[in-house]
User: Fold these one by one.
Assistant:
Number 1:
Amino acid sequence: MSTQAPTFIQPLQSVVALEGSAATFEAQVSGTPVPEVSWFRDGQVLSAAALPGAQISFSDGRAVLMISAVTAAHSGRFSVRATNGAGQATSTAELLVTAETAPPNFIQRLQSVTVRQGSQVRLDVRVTGIPTPVVKFYREGAEIQSSADFQIVQEGDLYSLLIAEAFPEDSGTYSVIASNSSGRATSTAELLVQGEEEAVPAKKSKTVISTSQISQTRQTRVEKRTEAHYQTSTTAMMEMQVEGGIVTQHLAHKTPPRVPPKPTSKSPTSKVSATRQQSPSPVRHVKGPTPTPVR
């Protein structure tokens, strides 16, 4: 059988108590075999008989020392020692007994947080008060009990709720209530746990074009097409007017083209030029067929 030296999972916490009220020290310890627990006050072994009104208990790794009605004489340093065959461990805290009182006061309040599914969550508060306030965590009005999934830890005036692995169903309103004989204080915050399906994809940018812009765009395209068609037609007409390296100017009204000089050499191009030197008049004189002479 393997052995394990004692370890304090939850150590003792110092207590400020009002004179005449109860004061409790509590610690959680583990170890194999189960350790034996002893209490000390200012270095001296402490027993229920030696400290009238004190109650000492140890069960399931939970060591408790409670004094029902404290006086100024109870103030001091209290320690708990856990021992087994593998070793020992000690935890120590202070008890301060005072006649003054102060209601609970949050010097650090809960903060709202948003996390992804599977993340670890820690909700912290710092609270003071005389006597030491009793601090409890709640979710949606239901008290949270410390467990493996939801662990409540105290370190001096710092109280923490640890969620080992958060899921969307853990989302909600969390609150802390601190109370003592002088009053009560509350702090509240929101926890949002986002599931994997809630991951927001990158938004694609869209360009919104109004109806007038679409009309203008279409009109511009038509004008460009008309202009392109006109330029193509003009280019074709100008190419047809290139004769023997000379370009004739096309006018809006029909005027006789300038007669180019007669070429010095006979070529097919010369015949075309000569043919195009006819009158541009739209009226053509049709001559009757010339009788073929009889031979």
Number 2:
Amino acid sequence: MSRETFFYLCDKLKPRLARQDTSFRLALPVEKRVAVALWRLASNIEYRTISTLFGVGKSTVCRCVRDMCHAIVALLSSIYLRSPSEQELEDSARLFLSNWGFPHCVAVVATLHTAIITPSNNASDYANPAGWLSVLSQVAVSGRGKFWDVCASFPGGTDPADIFQNSALWVTAAEGGLSPSLPPVFMGNSLGYVLLGEACYPLQSWLMKAYPEEKGRAAAQH
């Protein structure tokens, strides 16, 4: 992260992260709170190690991470996680075609498993197909590699297709929200843009999915 980006982030998050000094102690500067949280998010090292690096308590490290994540959601999510404009859709489709040779596509939809420690309740719900515990996130990524839709924190055992079909992104796409009022022309016909998705997703006029891998062929390849 560049110095300019770091201070830009601090400035944007300041309304939620700034604290007042008290008669008992001086408040931790916003810049230090952001630095502590970024270090944790970037490295995933133990709170104890970050505590030593920055000269703060472990509980302070935990609060910095929690507070910054909450501040990002409250102050920045509406700016960056939003439906793209018609021009952004057109630009994304152009990038998919020029960079990967896939025409008329504006985003890729996929899921990501993040490992967790064993939860106190319903632990079996978090066991994913690979056998370890996780939470599942669904993301849509544009041709510029930017996230513009996120659904997070589902138990790892959840079917990705269920997450997608119950998401706001599905509703938007099904109602034609991913194409301009006058659909662009593709191979001589007016056709709305499409998304690319995982093999487990149901095929739609606006969703192209990968072919499901045959178990016998997959085993032979491995």
Number 3:
Amino acid sequence: MARDLKNKVVVITGGAVGIGYEIADRYLQKGAKVTVLLDIDDRQGTEAAKSLCTKHGANRAVFMKCDVTKDLEPVSNKIIETYKTVDVLINNAGILNDQLGKKTIDINVWALIEWSMKFWEHMRTDKNGKGGTIINLASIYGFRVDQYFPIYHASKFAVMGFTKSLGHAYNFNRSGIRVLGICPGFTETKLTADPKTWDDQCLGNDFGVFVKKQLWQKVDSVGKAAVDVFEKANSGTAWLIEGAKPIVEV
């Protein structure tokens, strides 16, 4: 499969703001045919698509309202009916709130798995698909451990395991689908603006001190990393982007 974004149809969950929006912008700059932005926020999604179309041209970005935990079938079917072939799926939607354990797993893990499997079936060359790429947004919390977010850790470790297993060379060779992971470090987004630890009363102050010592970056670093990973990575691999430094396989 060509590692070239030119003329690709790209679907991005959580695509209205932050990392998702930045990836859409970067992929359009690299020649993607269209980015389909899925998000639960109507206003932000509409504004995001409008902004990207103003920058890159009419119909280059499309917004579809979507709750990734509930709307897989109607939204994915609409996308496939409209564009016939989807080349890239980016599972970016997620939450960072350890006080909402079930919701964390539903969004960060189960929805990601369901969307991956739906488009894996659509893309697989052994069933008349054209191949493609699935990129899962994991996190440094998918391979490093601290004491503040055990449920978020669990969700991102799950993403890493799922990515490396589905992306195994055996599955790539029979399907023509790369499955890749991106592991951002601390990034300035809406997600990290107000994180909830599992025990804020005891951990809140300590966490505040902890985060100030971390290597922070802006979303543009993750957007660039998403291009680099698409262009260079082999299936089943995961890549760290931290402190705006070059990507490193993890």
Number 4:
Amino acid sequence: MAHNHSAGGHGFNITSLFGSSHSTVAIGREGYWGPVTSTLDWCEENYEVLPMIAEMWNASTNIFFLLWPLVGIYSAYKTSSERRYYASYAALMLVGCGSFLFHGTLTYTMQLLDELPMMLATCIFVYTHIQMFATKPSPKTILAMAAVFLAVTASYLLLMTPILFQLAFIALTLIQVGLGIHNIYKVSRTHKHEARILYSMIATSVGAILFAFTLWNVDQVHCGALQGTRNAIGYPLRVGLELHAWWHVLSGFAGYVGVVGAQYCRLLALGRTDVRVAVWAGVLPVLVVVGGASPDRGTGKHVAATIKRPLTRSRTMKSKRA
């Protein structure tokens, strides 16, 4: 069984603006979860590996959305970071779980569990950047971000078009990056060396997501050619050309690095001098307490230097709330 992407196998989304594959695209088989009901169906042939998992490689690569945030949660615990960073890592894990269910079943309900957590996670990330130099949680900001999430969710459920979600996701991601750069600039007033590390982290995160987005589009626009090449080379090498699977690996890495960078920036803003960025296996940044010392929550003097108002120790301790 085969179809052409222009016939609607992927729904109308960002990639539709770039054209579509001129080659015939193989859908694959029908498996345990029945016919595809999602508005998107990716380039990996359905049920080719296991009868109970629609897209084996697109589903299984979501493991990285679980493993890396677990490292982040452990780091947040060891560095006594605020609860907003636990929420950020948990949101990434939720994205991974939803994406696994979506690619494993290709049903519309599971598609929502993939895409809506992405929007929720991005709203949380934006909140952490808005609150970077705040002395206490902002209910207004929380309500504003909740309103954004609910508005996008309601619109998506009513219109059922992927491009709406995708454009909203891109817009929030750009806001997050802009706020992140602004926050690093403010921190650089008192932490020049650390700011250089933060700039490199945000560059790594942005670079990874841009490369991932390129692969995401190539996977759809040139799907027919990719399938032909994969069939020609066979296993195990063909797995390397499952480009949407690489989107998961790279976007998961970009999201993790972005959260680590925001967490580190916040700790510096709070005046923490006992935390640094370690790099595991030459790739994965992890926040650690220097010398295994007990976490020093800081006095907030560095925040005062950057936002031009005092931050007492009592207020710094209260920041643990969110």
